[in-house]
Write a structure and sequence with these properties.
Largest interface: A-B, 63 and 73 residues
Order of helices and strands of chain B: HHHHHHHHHHHHH
Largest sheet of chain C: 7 strands, mixed
Strand order of the largest sheet of chain C: 8-9-10-1-11-19-12
Number of strands of chain C: 21
Chains: A mainly alpha, B mainly alpha, C alpha+beta
Shape of chain C: globular
Distance between the termini of chain C: 36 Å
Radius of gyration of chain B: 24 Å
Radius of gyration of chain C: 23 Å
Shape of chain B: globular
Oligomer: heterotrimer
Structural class of chain B: mainly alpha
Chain lengths: 304, 314, 527
């Protein structure tokens, strides 16, 4: 759900479904058509993401002005040739700030998901491999994280660590960890009982080896899909958290904090909200396309 | 089924224990304390110390935690430091608007998502399907607070059709109450509708691909009877999942909506409590939210088993 | 001024003066309204009835004025409770529940209480009730008024309607303190019967023009007209007042513009121009008593060095801040005393920006190349904007300022424990200049509002003298001296004295703004 920190949670429940909904035969025609439609969108999504990454990396070159330069004599100016997206409440160029804001938003999204991926996968691996008490403990811990209201977690962490980006990143990675943990654990459990694994262990292969050679490659697909979808939500979540005052510290700005700061000027100068708002929306849409395309390509279960 | 419920309840005890430890530690780590926050303009150190002692805030943390847990096991969630009312009463007062908002948002989302989802699946790759996909994309990718701002601007200020702030209880004044909840419910409902529509569409398409559908079509059963009769029911499972999970997070998670529309709900209660460092209130409400989430998960799992006898969660 | 009269004559107030005073008090604030403002409200006769819907930025905390620590509570209190002494719209002291007072000597005040006043629960207001209130404020464990009444040693009942306060030391500021919560009278019967419940339910507790009906937290607080109000001339007219907390500024303004509320307690500077142009809304500029500043920590680097503090002051451009951030909804501050106060000295200029002097002071302080520090400030839009502007201004002098945004609880904690270098401090202000100065600059050990840790014997001496000197003209000279010292020692970097614009629907008539920012609705009626 857009704006809520956690995504729909559907990904977490998918492991429970396959046995029931595995359709033995399907209309090939429909699958191909569908894939074709998606395929049209995927490049668009990829292009958008690439554009965003470029904007983030090349920000110093791309932005027409210094995003921090104030000009109190020219505040809330309408978009024109000099300031294509106008100026904000202290006269800074909105377009430059949006371009520089790409860095923050992308970092927030990718860094938190990466941390969640690493932490979650490790935990899932350990839980699945060791089983028994350890498994129980890890899974209960993941349940506890899932039932903890994410906003409270982010607020409290923000107060403890200071309101900067660090707190937000840690909060987001904590919130997204359970999904990866469950995925990984599911993979480990399904592979653990396979014959060739038993054989390998009988031959003396270590747990890490088995993990590396068998578990990870199979899990990779599902994890990449999950990661792709999570990044979009993480970026939206960072924007939501900045609404409550958490995240990047001034004078730097993320899209979310720009929207929040510009909220009060919506009637006088809507461009300072729509500039970053559009950037946010387009980037998230692009990431969604990419995530969907990944899911179609890699996850055999989801065919639609 | 009762075995399942019992088993689940036992399994959740360690989870709740972890949540309680987590929230206690977290909120006590935040700088500042409730007495300072309450008496910001006062210089009287003596009064503050007396208050702290009365509330037991000067004792070691481990002891405070043990004391709090002990009271919980007796069913006492403690008292809010700010208004000295029991936590349960505070929550009870605020749960109504939250539940009403969640219910209304859910209703709106179903009313919007079901027709669009079914039609999209039935008329796939048509312009209608495209429009539906566009709508769902919009709903998923649009930041919640931005949507709220836009809705307020158009419906509240420009058109003046709906009130933009405040809460009236629909059970006391039905029309005024519904109107006061309309804009926030639409904000939440549209985002929810997007997710549900997507899920419904994809699960319907899967169900439509099944063999029995081909058979029914070959037998000449009309398309709508096929959909309504069999496909829909089978397609409901993932949709119910999503709805259940969303409901679980809606109650404590609609904070931004509650803030922007000035609704006295549970989300705002807990966030304000965090800002005021009202330890018992934060701890109590977080526990209750966790319980709510767990219960909604349990209900979803039970519904699974009921809808599709093939799935029995062990 | 009553205080002058009290000192120059040890006799009781002359009969004629007394009658004049009573007439003024009885007539409410109407005769004191500036003619211009009166005309703006129209000459129609007040109508009874109607519900006034008021939007506030935050919820009230408690209905017990003795236990209250927050500003929003006071807004409601000034309509249901009454203090012994009230303020007119020029911040002059006027009789409230006390008809008159005199000071036989510097350490005694005798109040003659108004007769025929009843609390909303029907009990009489009299000397016993007043004494009960003072005792409660001084002895109740959770009382927040102890500091304000620290100088009151004891209260005697002289007769049924006269009380005598014995002070520990002469305190020229005490009367002004009694115009707010410290002077508000609560029904002893309600306190005894309700106890802690008073915090949520103030039914029957006050004597004011309105009485408490109900309070549903975070939803609404309702007051109803007190038809048995003792002052029969003028209002109250409104049938009901309904307070609603609306935390979001923009939504609050939009609620007013769409007619969902009738009154808004504060218009953000960024909205003022647009709102003034809106013909559906009436804006009243209320110059306030507030002073917004940043406290500088004298107990740790870099601001333990006076020259560096002064460098900071020269590097900041107050005019640009007031113009660019506050949009001229306020004036640059020369010190803690606002222009609305009698003690304000317009001959002392605010510190003007001077980069050359700033650089010189940097060198003097041993940091010719500049230095860096962190400012701790509240996480609200206008604070962020101000911090960003100051950041840019300081950078031009070579001073690098980092911004740390925190929530209020953390701000208070950091300030109280002196865990900061520069910290934002926005004081809502008090009618007597003592309230804007004493507790901030007097040397104190332990936790206090003296967050800067300043300890200057000269300042301490002046502060004490302002309390002991009864004549206003003399006190004014002392405060001027104080301000000059403060500009030199810089416990705080003073920024602005804000104006607090309030906005109303055009139906609202009869509002008379008092600089303390409190909205008193007695004379208000709806067209």
């Amino acid at each position: 759900m857009a704006g809520s920190i956690r995504e729909s949670g559907f990904a977490e429940r998918t492991p429970a479904l396959p046995a029931a909904t595995a359709a033995p035969r399907a209309e090939r025609r429909w699958i191909v058509l569908r894939r074709a439609a998606r395929a049209r969108l995927a490049p668009v999504g990829a292009a958008v993401v690439l554009l965003a990454v470029l904007a983030a990396v090349l920000a110093p070159l791309l932005s027409p002005h210094n995003p921090l330069t104030q000009n109190l004599g020219n505040t809330l100016a309408r978009p024109d040739r000099i300031h294509p997206l106008g100026t904000d409440n202290v006269g800074r160029d909105v377009l430059s700030r949006v371009i520089w804001g790409t860095r923050i938003s992308l970092v927030a999204g990718f860094a938190s998901v990466t941390m969640a991926l690493v932490a979650g996968s490790l935990l899932g691996l350990l839980a699945g491999y060791w089983g028994g008490r350890a498994d129980s403990l890890v899974m209960r811990l993941m349940d506890a994280v899932l039932s903890f209201p994410p906003l409270v977690l982010a607020l409290a962490l923000g107060a403890v660590l200071g309101a900067g980006l660090t707190g937000v990143l840690i909060a987001l990675s904590v919130v997204y960890t359970p999904a990866f943990a469950r995925l990984m654990r599911g993979q480990v459990l399904s592979i653990k009982s396979r014959d060739y694994v038993e054989a390998a262990r009988a031959l003396g292969a270590s747990g890490w080896r088995i993990a590396g050679r068998h578990v990870l490659p199979n899990a990779a697909a599902a994890i990449v899909v999950q990661a792709g979808l999570s990044v979009a939500f993480a970026i939206l979540a960072e924007a939501s958290l900045s609404f409550l005052g958490l995240g990047i510290q001034p004078p730097a700005a993320s899209w979310g904090s720009m929207i929040n700061a510009g909220r009060g000027y919506l009637q006088q100068a809507p461009w300072i909200v729509f500039g970053p708002g559009a950037a946010l929306f387009v980037t998230v849409v692009g990431l969604n396309f990419v995530g969907d395309a990944l899911r179609d390509a890699l996850d055999p279960r989801a065919r639609f | 089924m009762w075995q399942l419920i019992l088993h689940r309840m036992v399994a959740t005890i360690p989870v709740l224990f972890l949540v309680s430890a987590g929230v206690f530690m977290l909120i006590h780590l935040t700088p500042g304390d409730p007495i300072d926050a309450m008496m910001a303009e006062s210089v009287d150190a003596g009064v503050k110390e007396t208050l702290r002692r009365d509330l037991g805030l000067d004792r070691p943390l481990a002891l405070q935690y043990a004391h709090w847990m002990g009271r919980i096991l007796q069913g006492d969630l403690g008292q809010s430091i700010r208004n000295r009312e029991p936590v349960i009463e505070n929550v009870g007062r605020r749960i109504r608007p939250s539940l009403q908002l969640a219910a209304l948002a859910m209703a709106i989302s179903l009313v919007v998502a079901f027709p669009i989802g079914i039609l999209s699946a039935a008329r796939r790759n048509s312009p209608l399907d495209g429009a539906g996909s566009l709508f769902s994309l919009f709903g998923i990718c649009m930041p919640n607070f931005l949507l709220a701002l836009l809705l307020i601007f158009f419906f509240g200020v420009t058109l003046r059709w709906l009130p933009i702030s405040g809460y009236t209880d629909p059970f006391e004044e039905p029309l005024a109450g519904l109107r006061s909840l309309a804009l926030p419910a639409i904000t939440l409902g549209l985002a929810l509708a997007a997710v549900i529509m997507r899920t419904l569409r994809s699960s319907m398409l899967e169900a439509l691909a099944e063999d029995y559908v081909r058979t029914a079509r070959a037998k000449g059963v009309s398309e709508w009877r096929v959909i309504g009769g069999h496909v829909l029911r089978n397609a409901l499972i993932p949709v119910v999942t999503v709805m259940g999970l969303q409901l679980g997070t809606l109650i404590g998670g609609a904070v931004i909506t509650e803030y922007v529309f000035a609704l006295p709900g549970v989300g705002r209660l807990v966030v304000d409590a965090v800002f005021a460092r009202d330890y018992p209130l934060v701890q109590g409400v977080v526990l209750l939210i966790a319980v709510g989430y767990i219960v909604s998960n349990l209900i979803v799992d039970l519904l699974y088993g009921w809808i599709d006898p093939r799935i029995r969660i062990r | 001024m009553p205080s002058n009269r009290a000192r120059s004559s040890s006799r009781a107030v002359s009969r004629r003066a007394f009658l004049r005073l009573s007439a003024l008090a009885a007539g409410g604030l109407a005769p004191l309204t500036a003619p211009g403002a009166r005309r703006a409200w129209g000459q129609a006769a007040p109508k009874k009835g109607g519900t006034l819907r008021v939007g506030f930025y935050v919820e009230a905390a408690t209905m017990d004025p003795h236990l209250s620590g927050s500003k929003v509570d006071r807004q409601v209190y000034h309509n249901i409770y009454e203090p012994l002494v009230t303020l007119d719209n020029k911040l002059g002291l006027r009789p409230g529940l006390a008809e008159s007072w005199q000071q036989p000597d510097a350490k005694t005040i005798v109040f003659k209480l108004r007769q025929g006043v009843k609390f909303h629960d029907g009990t009489d207001f009299n000397a016993e009730a007043a004494k009960f209130n003072f005792n409660r404020m001084k002895t109740e464990p959770k009382s927040v008024r102890k500091g304000e009444l620290a100088n009151v040693e004891s209260v005697d009942v002289v007769d049924a309607y006269t009380i005598r306060l014995h002070l520990r030391r002469p305190d020229a500021a005490l009367l002004a303190t009694l115009t707010d919560r410290a002077g508000m009278m609560v029904s002893p019967k309600v306190i005894q019967e309700k106890g802690a419940e008073l915090e949520r339910n103030a039914r029957g507790a006050g004597t004011g023009p309105f009485q408490f009906v109900e309070w549903v937290k975070d939803a609404h607080l309702i007051l109803r007209r007190n038809d048995a109000y003792w002052n029969k001339s003028g209002g109250p007219y409104l049938e009901q007042i309904r307070y609603r907390p609306i935390p979001d500024d923009t939504v609050k303004l939009q609620s007013l513009q769409t007619g969902e509320i009738d009154v808004m307690d504060y218009v953000q500077p960024r909205d003022v121009a647009a709102v003034k142009a809106d013909r559906n809304v009436v804006v009243v500029d209320v110059p306030s008593l507030a002073d917004f500043a940043y406290q500088l920590n004298h107990t740790r680097p870099p601001f333990n060095v006076k020259a560096l503090r002064q460098a900071l002051a020269y590097a900041v451009d107050l005019e640009q801040i007031v113009k660019g951030v506050w949009l001229n909804v306020g004036v640059p501050a020369n010190g803690p005393i606002p222009p609305t106060s009698w003690a304000y000295d317009s001959s002392i200029p605010f510190i003007k920006r001077d980069l050359a002097k700033a650089k010189a002071k940097l060198a003097e302080g041993g940091k010719p190349g500049g230095f860096s520090f962190t400012v701790t400030t509240n996480n609200i839009p206008i604070n962020i904007q101000e911090a960003e502007v100051i950041q840019a201004q300081l950078a031009e002098a070579g001073i690098a300022m980092k911004v740390k945004l925190v929530d209020s609880a953390t701000l208070l904690s950091d300030g109280n424990s002196k865990n900061y270098e520069m910290i934002s401090y926005q004081w809502s202000g008090r009618p007597d200049p003592d309230g804007n100065t004493y507790q901030f600059y007097k040397t104190s050990s332990g936790v206090s509002l003296n967050w800067s840790g300043i300890s200057n014997p000269q300042i301490d001496a002046i502060l004490d003298k302002t309390r002991e000197t009864p004549r206003q003209a003399d006190r004014k000279k002392l405060f001027s001296e104080l301000v000059r010292l403060l500009q030199d020692e810089l416990p705080m970097l003073f920024i602005v004295h804000p104006i607090e614009p309030k906005a109303f629907s055009p139906r609202v008539q009869g509002y008379d703004p008092v600089p303390d920012g409190m909205m008193r609705f007695r004379e208000v009626w709806l067209k």
